[in-house]
Structure formats: structure tokens, C-alpha cells
Amino acid sequence: MSTLEGFVKNEDLRKRLLFTLGVLIVYRAGVQVPTPGVDNAAVQQFFEAQSGGIFGLFNTFTGGALERFSIFALGIMPYISSSIIFQLLTAAVPHLEQLKKEGQHGQKKINQYTRYGTVVLAIIQGYGISTWLKSSTSPAGSPLVPNPFVGIVPFEVMTIITLTAGTCFIMWLGEQITERGIGNGASLIIFAGIAAGIPSGFMNSIQLVKNGEMSVLFALILLAVMVFVIGYIIFMEVAQRRIPVQYSQRTSRMGGQASHLPLKINFSGVIPPIFASSLLMLPATLAQFTQSETLASLRDSFQPTGAIYNIIFVTLIIFFAFFYAEIVFKPDEVADNLKKHGGFVPGIRAGKSTADYIQRVLNRINVLGAIYLSAVCVLPGILIETAKVPFYFGGTSLLILVGVALDFTQQVQSHLLSAKYESFMRGGAKMKSRRVQY
Question: What is the pTM of this model?
Fold first, then answer.
């Protein structure tokens, strides 16, 4: 069954895909709605002058909402930052750790705390950005905020309410995709934001070639580099380290290796760069807003191509690669399940020895995965910035685009296989009933 044929015949998959597409369209429509009280033309001029730094990265992740200063200007990053905070607290606070062990009920409670944290972070960021906008001017000298009041409401209060409501709405949209659509809602929203900037960046590059500001040879080399990086990302995302597993009751008829335990080389996927970028955006943005001369050098170096930024970025990627694997994958549980079903790793004792062996293998591939993530996220961005490409489309963006697209297609294939299996089982039941009647 082809994917297109499965889409036509599988009603549940069709509804989920259309629902996901509809939610993403609503999100992109909201990006066009401006925040009350700002001069949109002056704001766009300002952010065009600031493109390429942390503003360019933040604007990429919000799908252009920041440069328009729309109601979705903060994007989904406060929600991701809150999720990171509570995942870290789960390992440190006994109450949260106990909630996590309670299963679905405890997870719902943690999700509720995460939403509260999202509101708090959105209020803080909304206050900071509104105060900064009120005191800033465009390159032409026009104030970004012409009037300190929106009607009778102070501009800061209106901006905080608007941006916080926008972030909460995006958070709700992401949860709806996760529950009723296909894929991870937060990742797909970030994916949609990055993908929305590809056409304009492509057209800008073509215009530069036409104007003679970029040579045709350089444009082809840049395209070849991007294709190579995409191919490398796909290769690494599907790469696996397979641990052979044998089952005692099957050895006689199957012989040798009966099965395997697959561990992805990039076990944590796109989570580490998303988490690291989200955490770095808050202090980097605040550093951009400050007028202190003491922080001027820090502000200049704390850019996506700066040494300080990249050192911290790589450190966070490595940390989250191991942290996420530690939270999601439990070698002790895997070893116990293998032992219960008569499975064992050849040459390794069942039980604790198997768990220790799996943990060692996981640690080794995590080292390789963290190096791969760091190289892809940092090096292309530095090369592209050095070449003065007119849009921010570095390794982090490519990694998120390819990683989320692969995860999305895998979930679609999973739905197709599930539908095919259910259809086969229904057919088998009918055949069995006819034999009994005969």
C-alpha cells in the first residue's frame, strides 16, 4: 500500500493529517496579527538592521513573528523553557519525582505546573521586551512605540497581556496537535516557523545573484553544502547501534541471533538543540536589550557566531543529549523485560550485567551523537555567517527541519502499518468464521 493510497483509505490518518495542517495554518495566520501600540514599519526596519545575530535566530524560530512583532512574537519558546525547567526539577525535587512515578495522573500534574511556568516566563519576557521597545528607535530615528498608551491602557500592560495570551494559545495549539494530530506539536510549530522563512531566503539569494552581489559559483557551492549537510543529517538520524538479542525458547528453530535491540546513534533527536537554543535565547535577548557599557562586549560576543555563545551552546547540547537519554531510556527496565521473556545478550549475564552493558553502549553512542549534534548546529552557521548569506539558515535550523520531518513521516508510516495490521486481523477473523460455519 502506497502512502497516498493509505492516506485516501485510512480515514483516521486523513483526519489527523488535515487537523494538523489546519492548526499550522491557524498558527501562521496568527503570525500576521500585529501587537497593538507599535509602529510595524519602524519595527521591521529595526529588525532588518539587526538580522544575523540573536534576533535573526529568534526570528527564525518564531517564523517571522518577532520582526513583525505580532501577537505570537514570543513563539513557543517560553513553553519549551518551562518544560526544561520542570524536567530538571523532576530529578532534584522529591515531590515532582514522586509525581512522575505516579504515571499518567502525576504527568498531568507536572504538565499543569509547566503551563503555569510558561505564563510566568511569558510575563517576564513580555515586560522586558515592552520596556525595551518603548525606549528604542528605528534606524531612521522613528520611535518603535509612538504612544505610551494603547487607549487608556499603558503600552507595557497591553504588550504583556497580548504576548502572554499569544504564547498560551500557541502552547494550546501544540498540545492539540500532539493529542489529535500527528507528531509532536511543539516541534511541528517550530518546524513551520523555520520552513516559512525558506522561500524568502531563497528569493533573496536569487536577487543577490541577479544584482551581482553573489557569484553564481558561490551560490552553487552554498547549495551543495546545504544538500550535503541535509544528507548527512538524514544518515545520522536513521543510523542505529543494534545490540543482538537471543531468546532461549526460539534458539532451536531460528538458530543464532533471533532479534536485536536498536539504539539510535542520535538517541535524543532534535531535543538537545531545541532546549539549548531556548535557554540561550532568554539571556542573549536580555543582553541585547541592555544599555550598560559593562555588558557591551558580552553582548557583542553573545551572538550565534560568537565564541562565548558557541561554547555554552555546545555544552548545553552535550548536557541535554545525556540528560534526555537518562530520563527516557531505562536500561534496568529493558534488562528486566528481556529476562522475563527469556531474552539475553550473547556473552552477557541476564539482569544487572545486561543493564550495565546496555548503559555502556548507550553512553558511547551518546558521545558520538553529541559530537554530531554540536558539529551540525555550530559549524554550518559559522560558515554561512562568514559568507554573509542574507538569511539565517544554519545547522540548528536544518537539523530541526530534517529531524522533525523524519519523525513526522515515521509516525505516518506507523499509522499506515497499524491500519494494515488491523485490516489483516479483520480479514483473518472473517475467514475463520466461514470455516466454522462450513
Answer: 0.80
Determine the length of the chain: 438
Q: What is the mean pLDDT of each run of 10 residues along the chain (438 residues)?
A: 61 88 94 88 76 68 84 90 85 84 85 93 88 80 84 90 95 93 89 85 80 81 83 89 79 55 87 83 61 60 72 90 86 87 84 90 92 85 64 71 88 79 59 44
End-to-end distance of the chain based on CA atoms, in angstroms?
32
All CATH 1.10.3370.10 domain ranges of the chain, comma separated, are 1-196, 211-410
Pairing of strands 343-344, 153-154: unpaired
The CATH superfamily assigned to 1-196 is: SecY subunit domain (1.10.3370.10)
CB-CB contact of 280 with 316 (8 Å): yes
C-alpha cell at 90: 523532576
Count of alpha carbons within 13 Å of 315, Cβ hemisphere only?
8
Give the closest residue to 53 by CA, choosing from 278, 288, 226.
Answer: 288
- CATH number for the domain running over 211-410: 1.10.3370.10
Cα–Cα distance between 339 and 349 in angstroms, integer?
10
